From TrEMBL:
Gene3D superfamilies: Allene oxide cyclase-like (2.40.480.10). This is Dirigent protein. Residues 1-25 form the signal peptide. Pfam families: Dirigent. InterPro entries: Allene_oxi_cyc_Dirigent, Dirigent. Keywords: Apoplast, Secreted, Signal. It comes from Carya illinoinensis. The lineage of its organism: Eukaryota, Viridiplantae, Streptophyta, Embryophyta, Tracheophyta. One of its GO terms (cellular component) is apoplast. Dirigent proteins impart stereoselectivity on the phenoxy radical-coupling reaction, yielding optically active lignans from two molecules of coniferyl alcohol in the biosynthesis of lignans, flavonolignans, and alkaloids and thus plays a central role in plant secondary metabolism.
């Protein structure tokens, strides 16, 4: 009987320790990042290119409606500061589409932010959501990530730093919540 009680007590202690370790492993880590994205649509080396759009026979006069349906593919540099010659830390790669027909110009953003240097080198996070471009500050959801940002969730705030014709520099403040990496993964 005494041996059985010791086994039950030992098993109970192991279960409690496993639950504590599991709870610690499931805790989220908060990461905050700030960077600038350079969206260049004009000139000899554009980083965003329109690949689809409304038929040329559109006769409306509303400039927002004229853009509706336009789709662009991009590979924009991410930099530490808004200066064009600032250190490149990553790329924003994906698609945006003009998704509004009336009053407010908005884009549907489907972008992956890829880090190529610094502490997040090799890691990515993805944003999918509506971007009301003319609003001073836009909030969009982070829906996933890889590397250090594995299982990321969170949000980003975008603010236009400068706009020259259609070329823009956008400041991003990103808050990510990530799960600690597990040792049980494939290499």
């Amino acid at each position: 009987m005494a041996v059985r009680a010791k086994h039950v007590l030992l098993i109970a202690a192991l279960v409690v320790m496993a639950l504590i370790c599991t709870a610690d492993a499931l805790k989220s880590k908060r990461i905050r990042i700030q960077f600038y994205m350079h969206d260049i649509v004009g000139g000899p080396n554009p980083t965003a290119v329109r690949v689809a759009g409304r038929m040329t026979n559109y006769t409306g006069s509303d400039p927002i409606a004229t853009m509706f349906g336009s789709v662009s593919v991009l590979d924009n540099p991410l930099t530490v500061t808004p200066e064009p010659n600032s250190t490149v830390i990553g790329r924003a790669q994906g698609i945006y589409a003009a998704s509004s027909q009336h009053r407010e110009f908005s884009l549907l953003m489907t972008l992956t932010y890829v880090f190529i240097s610094g502490p997040y080198n090799g890691s990515t996070f993805s944003v999918v959501g509506r971007n009301p471009v003319m609003s001073e500050v836009r909030e969009m959801p982070v829906v996933g990530g890889t590397g250090i940002f594995r299982l990321a969730r969170g949000y980003c705030f975008a603010r236009t730093y400068s706009l020259d014709r259609m070329d823009a520099i956008i400041g991003y403040n990103v808050t990510l919540y990530t799960k600690p990496k597990s040792d049980n993964h494939y290499h």
